[in-house]
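Supplementary Methods. Inverse-folding protocol.

Structures were first reduced to a discrete structure-token string of length 451. This string, shown here, constituted the complete conditioning input.
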């Protein structure tokens, strides 16, 4: 039977792994002081490894016994040494970033979010039809915002805090978290402002052709509570704008949008339902095709979303603007009519569960966990210096002298009051090039586990 392991399952397992550190004793073990050489069927397949040609660990029944024999020392891992991480993508001008889509398979494997040199993380809501990004997203806001010139739309997710930069940021990874309490950062505001089922964006998947019956300008004097007198450049053809929307973009009545129910070409007068504020000769308007939204979920409760066409270039639909985004949608349709053209197709984009920014960890793919264990000098005498180590191993719940290990550090295995030989479960093994330890040296050992 066809089946998948979902990204939610992966993130759930990563959560459980992190939680296990509060109920289990997890140790980071370093080992293997001698150089890589010769065959060792129980722990790797290579016949002639070396310190410049590192073998690949294999998972055999025999391997844990070998690793115990190679043990140099072990240190307890604290819960504060662990974080969800996501793949690092630095924003770079000229790059086409994938845009968020609620119908995208394996969204977290797409390059749909970036980190800037201010350590701000942004999700790409729209890439302007597959264009390259040329305007670095800047600032922190709880609202989706547009790039200055490149047509991109971005959602600020969070800022990587300085303490986490030092501990968890690498060339390949950045930390991510879900806040359980207000920590004073804007991420908390973003989480609180998220709207479940919001339709934050409608993508123009095909701009169509021939949408030339549009008009923008400044209204003339003479509008009434149910009419607007369009600019002298408006069409002289009766009813050509019927069924289209007129939006007041600035000036008196700014922000109002109405559907035109009648148009007289000779007078340039369009009839609408009653204005809240009657336009005048300062009112800048846009007459555009109408966008209709429908909830496509038979059991859904999506409501409140409205949209307008906000850009037509050469008869091609370029942009749809949301106002407002509504809530409760799980799936939806959007259609565009009017303007004299045809062929435009629209794809509503529904936010993730809880809304964009509600849970950066699940939205951006926190199915990876980084452990950062700092080894400082001899660690009180248990960690040898002046020698190399080549193995890094995670051991769960080992024993020391027949009882559960609880000390912060141990040296070797099998000695009195040290870790018992072959005790505990080795849940992660990594081979490395030799790392030399000195008494005045500190190593930050960073491990990334994928779920």
């Amino acid at each position: 039977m066809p089946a998948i392991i979902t990204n939610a399952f992966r993130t759930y397992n990563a959560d459980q792994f992190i939680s296990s550190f509060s109920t289990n004793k997890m140790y980071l073990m370093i080992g293997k002081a001698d150089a890589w050489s010769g065959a060792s069927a129980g722990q790797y397949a290579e016949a002639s490894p070396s310190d410049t040609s590192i073998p690949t660990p294999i998972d055999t029944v025999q391997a844990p016994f070998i690793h115990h024999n190679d043990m140099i020392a072990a240190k307890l891992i604290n819960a504060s040494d662990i974080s969800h991480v996501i793949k690092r993508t630095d924003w770079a001008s000229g790059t086409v970033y994938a845009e968020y889509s609620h119908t995208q398979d394996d969204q977290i494997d797409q390059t749909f979010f970036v980190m800037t040199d201010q350590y701000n993380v942004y999700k790409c809501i729209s890439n302007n039809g597959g264009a390259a990004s040329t305007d670095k997203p800047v600032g922190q806001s709880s609202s989706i915002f547009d790039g200055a010139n490149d047509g991109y739309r971005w959602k600020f997710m969070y800022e990587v805090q300085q303490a986490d930069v030092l501990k968890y940021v690498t060339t390949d990874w950045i930390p991510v978290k879900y806040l359980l309490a207000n920590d004073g950062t804007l991420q908390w505001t973003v989480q609180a402002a998220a709207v479940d089922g919001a339709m934050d964006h409608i993508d123009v998947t095909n701009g169509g052709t021939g949408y030339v019956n549009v008009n923008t300008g400044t209204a003339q004097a003479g509008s009434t509570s149910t009419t607007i007198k369009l600019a002298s450049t408006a069409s002289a053809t009766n009813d050509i704008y019927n069924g289209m929307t007129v939006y007041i973009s600035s000036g008196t009545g700014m922000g109002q949008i109405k559907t035109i129910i009648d148009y007289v070409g000779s007078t340039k007068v369009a009839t609408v339902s009653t204005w809240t504020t009657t336009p005048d000769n300062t009112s800048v308007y846009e007459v555009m095709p109408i966008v209709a939204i429908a909830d496509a979920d038979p059991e859904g409760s999506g409501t409140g979303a409205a949209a307008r066409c906000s850009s037509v270039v050469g008869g091609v639909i370029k942009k749809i603007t949301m106002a407002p985004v509504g809530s409760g949608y799980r799936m939806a349709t959007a259609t565009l009519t009017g303007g004299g053209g045809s062929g435009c197709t629209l794809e509503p984009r529904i936010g993730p569960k809880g809304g964009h920014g509600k849970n950066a960890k699940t939205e951006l793919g926190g199915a990876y966990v980084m452990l950062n264990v700092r080894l400082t000098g001899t660690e009180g005498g248990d960690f040898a210096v002046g020698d190399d180590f080549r193995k890094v191993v995670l051991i769960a719940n080992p024993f020391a002298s027949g009882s559960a290990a609880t000390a912060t550090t141990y040296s070797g295995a099998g000695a009195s009051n040290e870790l018992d030989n072959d005790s505990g479960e080795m849940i992660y093994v990594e081979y490395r090039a030799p790392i030399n330890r000195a008494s005045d040296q500190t190593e930050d050992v960073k491990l990334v586990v994928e779920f």
